[in-house]
Design goal:
Blueprint (H helix, E strand, L loop, with lengths): L1 E7 L7 H9 L4 E4 L8 E5 L2 E5 L12 E4 L4 E2 L1 H13 L8 E4 L3 E2 L2 H14 L11 H10 L11 H21 L8 H15 L3 E2 L1 H10 L3 E5 L24 H5 L10 E7 L2 E3 L12 H10 L11 E3 L1 E2 H11 L3 E5 L9 E10 L2 E3 L6 H6 L1 E8 L16 H14 L3 E5 L7 E3 L5
Parallel strand pairs: 1-10, 1-11, 2-5, 2-10, 5-7, 6-8, 7-9, 11-15, 14-16, 15-19
Antiparallel strand pairs: 3-4, 12-13, 16-17, 16-18, 19-20
Helix pairs in contact: 3-4, 5-6
This protein binds guanosine-5'-diphosphate (GDP), 6-O-phosphoryl inosine monophosphate and magnesium ion.
6-O-phosphoryl inosine monophosphate binds next to helix 4.
Amino acid sequence: MSVTIVVGAQWGDEGKGKIVDFLTESADIVARYQGGHNAGHTVVINNEKYVLHLIPSGILHKDTVCVIGNGVVVEPAALLEEMTGLQKRGIRVSENLLLGKSAHLIMPYHLALDKASEKSKGKKCIGTTGRGIGPTYVDKMARTGIRVGDLLDPDIFREKVETNLKHINFLMKNLYHAPAFSAKKICQEYEEYGRRLKRHIADTDLIVNRAIAEGKNVLLEGAQGTLLDIDHGTYPYVTSSNSIAGGACTGLGIGPTKITGVIGVVKAYTTRVGSGPFPTEISDATGEQLRSRGGEFGATTGRPRRCGWLDVVILRHAAMINGLSGMAITKLDILDGLDTIKICTGYRYKGKLFETFPKEMEIIENCKPVYEEIRGWDTSTLGIKEFRKLPVQARAYIKRIEDLTGIKAHIISTGQKRDELIKIRTPF
Ligand code: GDP
Ligand code: IMO
Ligand code: MG
């Protein structure tokens, strides 16, 4: 029995999708606990590429139950489109996909509010994915949100939409000078979504807890990453949910005593998409090389990802905040052929050395990273499946990351494809 959380240790896009798909081999249930279709989790099987946005990355294993938990925000049209897309490719999406009744719905006005808010911020915009994520979580916290379970009762649903639109349409007209929303149109549209999603809507808290009680293997899939967490990330340049491991408990209704392990997914370098500070960002040709070799373009928005060296200050923060029990280090192959590789071990700001992640945005924005350099390797690591077959310098790099973070690498990923990885230890 195992209840394992897979969490991003950096700014998202660490390769969580690939690691979750691999671990699903031995899992009975895979559950998403937060975020929405701002996520883009890529899984490559043979030469087929799948990008999952809302559906857990376990869906490609036909016998695994996939759960979208209460902590996720759901855009029903996006979910239905994703389901149909997978079904067209021969992937089973039926009783094996469950949608929590208490998950909040992304409404058309949330998308409008997200875009309007970004526009009004101008240069200081967050660079959101424009999917309505922030405004939906705002309504959840304001207790004016509409939940998946409400889709099952059109009268309650209509009443909530009408109440909300009084306020929303006032903002649309007077603040954003944008067209008003029609309650009738929204209700018609969502009634249809409700009809199509009904068979998937369930008490997911009960289902997940029963599975745990029966000793099943449960995998909890985080979206985004530690530094995009609303509380522990680079606020305000973050997403609007708790993407850290703790979010798995609230986002699914699982008690912390049930969690047996937390795997932090660590890209062998660092990337970030959207605005906000990034101490180890590389703006020269090496950054460009990482971006093109690593295919660092957003899986959701297609935006180029900013690239930089591995930052151990961040990883130590991720290890502490998530209580990491192991790491899955991904994209090692992208570093093949570099003469030297830099690892950031601290930040220097106004003469002072910081080895723990500072809370002050001023420091994170203006610090100078302190680097140690290691020699690179000139042979290919692509597709290597055994640790001992890695070039000696690649092994030294992994070992150095382990030493600097105090966390062991349980998996090392050496390529995009499902089987391109080194398995050192699995949670099951
Ligand atoms: P996620 O959001 O954390 O699931 O990550 P994304 O899917 O957004 O981005 C990770 C990208 O790296 C995807 O294109 C993956 O197919 C790819 N990827 C994952 N692991 C590896 C690896 O070890 N090597 C290479 N070359 N690509 C990888
Ligand atoms: P996965 O799960 C990388 C970033 C956006 C923006 C900020 C807020 O694929 O790792 P939002 O739309 O959430 O309000 O945007 O968060 N962001 C991500 N960056 N990977 C993601 O997901 C992200 N989801 C959101 O670019 O900077
Ligand atoms: Mg992604």
